[in-house]
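Extended Data, panel c. Modelled sequence:
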Amino acid sequence: MKIRTCSLIILCALALAGALASPVLAQAPSCVTSNDCGANGLCGRPIGACLKAGTCVTPPTACRATFDPVCGCNGQTYDNECFASLAGVSVAALGPCEAMACLGNQDCTGGFMCHTATGACGAVGTCGVTPTTCSAFMYMPVCGCDGQTYDNVCMASKAGVSVALMGQCPGQKCQTNNDCAGDQYCMRPGQSCNGNGRCEPRPEVCTFIYAPVCGCDGEIYANSCIAAEAGVSVANAGETCRGNL
């Protein structure tokens, strides 16, 4: 009896010593993109969580040729989840990527937005990938369905907004320059300094032609373009302000 008890004590002591000597498994680091996981890492996410933070995992090096299609967070269809991981892409949904009808972004899964045809704001659209990066050098302004002007279609899509019309949005009503975007000013037509105006772009380049005007701020400007560049509407033409400010 004593020998058996002693053996059990020794075994328990050895097991305890082994447990204490075992290294503690480190928790996988969190990530936003696969770039956060090093050269050979993948930012893995649960299915459908394209926009949420993930954890760094080791991607597969080979996959079985099993056809069980999934839709990747980049909008591409892969033969199976393994091939998506092999490409460094998380899975948005099981099954192939299909044009899913929607009425708003809330009808689409994470990483997707509801695209409608240009000028068809509020109509039935289809879920498409929301871009994460856009060129900041391509200036082809569009008016979004939210009434805001974007530098290009990609920038509108990145904000989750479809396009209402090509070009800048028509000037919105305003009371002061604070009601307009940073590169706009509140222009009051008809040489009026009171009442509602409309937001118009500030000119970037003006001529040096001397055709003086009185601004609504009581200052004299060399011409109306320079006044607009300063974000000031015109009260009257000439070198004298006539008191209708």
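Residues 66 and 80 are 7 Å apart (CA to CA). This feature is highlighted in the accompanying rendering.
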